[in-house]
Amino acid sequence: GSSLLLQNSLPPLVNGNFENGKTGWFSLNDEGVTLDTDASHCHGGSACAVIEPNPTGKPQRLYQKITVVPYRTYHLRFWVKYTGLNSDIKISGYGTGGIWRLMNQVSRPSATQDWMMVDSTFISFESDTISLYIGLGEHAGTVWVDDISAEEIALMNVMRREGTPLRIYNPVNNVTYNEGSDVYTISDPLSFPHGQYDIYHTPPVPKLPASTKLTQGEIVAIDYYAVIPSYKDATPACMTEPGVFDYLRTNMIQFTKYFNKSSGIMFTYDEIRHMHSCQRCQSKFPTAGELLAWNTQQVSNIAEGVSPGIQLYVWSDMFDPVENAHDHYYDVPGTIAGSWLGLPDDMIIMNWHLGDGESAALKFFAGMDSTASPPQTRTFQQIIAGYYDSHNGAQSATEEIEAAHGVPGLLGVMYTTWGNDFSQLRSYADATKAAWPAYVKSVVTDV
Q1: What is the pTM of this model?
Q2: Is the predicted pLDDT of residue 393 greater than 50, yes or no?
Q3: Does residue 285 have a pLDDT over 90?
Q4: Do residues 351 and 380 touch, judged by C-beta distance below 8 A?
Q5: How far apart are CA 276 and CA 332, in angstroms?
Q6: Quick one: how far is CA 186 from the chain centroid?
Q7: Which residues face 85 on adjacent strands?
Q8: What is the per-residue pLDDT for 1?
Q9: What are 124-150's pLDDT values in tens digits?
Q10: What pLDDT shows up at residue 447?
Q11: Dist. CA 401–CA 433, nearest whole Å
Q12: Bridge partner residues of 387 (DSSP)
């Protein structure tokens, strides 16, 4: 039978095979990023890009800016090999206004790897250009990149549930076509393998039944909803999906069988890169911030119902306007401002906003920021989730607690590590004990 064939609107990348020298990819002039013209090193042809070892930490990136169509899906593919590599290769894409539209990294099966194919996908959203980057920061080892390509795709991981309608229509005369009689029901049979969404697979091709009213050569558009994972396979759940609340309730019931109330429950709202995009969420809540506030209230009520009085904890970032609760956060449409209104009064904030913004973030959750909109006037108890592999535990603890001076409600600190680095735990603890009296004095008012 007949099929609907995608019209790829994306022109080929400039010099994706590096056969035309440094054209197209080396305009950033990052040190250690150059052209390798030894054909024996390359995946195809006589040239490829090479990224040399980098002990300085300065960015090393291949870069090209491409023109895209808003609200389309794109597939990026390249080949990579490396020797002695000790860091992840990052794949990034920034759209209009510098908003991050593509975020992924290359899995490293081992420190040395022969040529392997890497796929990434992204949605352009409102952007009409995307700045593509492939590269690393500080690392040992040498990396080769070759045969970079990109294409427009459609219907990969298409969602078919309440709140994600699909429409097929002629964009010229706006005639709508029906699934079943004009186009066989559209789905993606390769979606959600092994209980998670993958970053790329061959998209489905819509088929036409004999009864179709579409004519040969007619161009149609399909509006649909889809899942695009970030960072390999990270995918958020819909915040208004009833099944998600049932799942959380079941998990909390199981939790209480093994832990008593003194254990508490940690809510892992953290770096939520995509929400408030399905029709159901948008029809219920004008903004992502209001959606997240409502969802937080629902999950808090579930916890209270399962284990009355249990202490709740939450990461700070999705409720912190200094960090992530603001406009244009990754693939979240609109604003996340106001998410903090959904926090229960007795929620303990695990505040991991360190560095220059730490003091402002701590003050915000203490109700000391008069600029917040909508206002945040409550004084939450907080724990600083500190360290994060700074390699200097004493300095980290001292600076983190000094940033909290004058901010009431700090209960303590938590040693937090990305890379299981506990070498600084003792010095972090000792410095915390030494700095704590000065913090207490800064928030105690003499009578």
Answers
A1: 0.91
A2: yes
A3: yes
A4: no
A5: 7
A6: 27
A7: none
A8: 64
A9: 999 999 999 999 988 899 999 999 999
A10: 40
A11: 10
A12: 416
Structure tokens at 33: 């990023």
pLDDT, averaged across the chain = 94
Q: Across residues 283-304, what is the average pLDDT?
A: 98
Non-local CB neighbours of 231 within 8 Å, separated by 6+ positions: 103, 104, 105
Backbone angles phi, psi at 184, to 5 degrees: -60, 150
Length of the chain: 447
| CA angle, residues 194, 195, 197, in degrees to nearest 5 | 95
CA-CA-CA-CA dihedral for 274, 276, 278, 280, to nearest 10:
150
pLDDT digits (tens, 9 = 90+) for 96-118: 888 888 888 888 889 999 999 99
Distance CA 106, CA 433 (A): 41
3-state secondary structure the chain: CCECCCCCCCCCCCCCCCCCCCCCCCCCCCCCEEEECCHHHCCCCCCEEEECCECCCCCEEEEEEEECCCCCEEEEEEEEEEECCCCCEEEEEECHHHCEEEEEEECCCCCCEEEEEEEEEEECCCCCEEEEEEEECCECCEEEEEEEEEEEECCCCECCCCCCCCEEECCCCCCEECECCCECCCCCCCCCHHHCCCCCCCCCCCECCCCCCCCCCCCCEEECCECCCECCCECCCCCCCHHHHHHHHHHHHHHHHHCCHHHCEEECCCCCCCCCCCHHHHHHCCCHHHHHHHHHHHHHHHHHHHCCCCCEEEECHHHCCCCCCCECCCCCCCECCCHHHHCCCCCEEEECCCHHHHHHHHHHHCCCCCCCCCCCCCCCCEEEEEECCCCCHHHHHHHHHHCCCCCCCEEEEEEECCCCCCCCHHHHHHHHHHHHHHHHHHHCCCC
Q: Quick: pLDDT tens for 33-67.
A: 999 999 999 999 999 999 999 888 889 999 999 99
**358-372 pLDDT per residue, tens:** 999 999 999 999 999
CB of 93 closer than 8 Å to CB of 102: yes
Cβ within 8 Å of residue 58, ≥6 positions away: 30, 31, 137
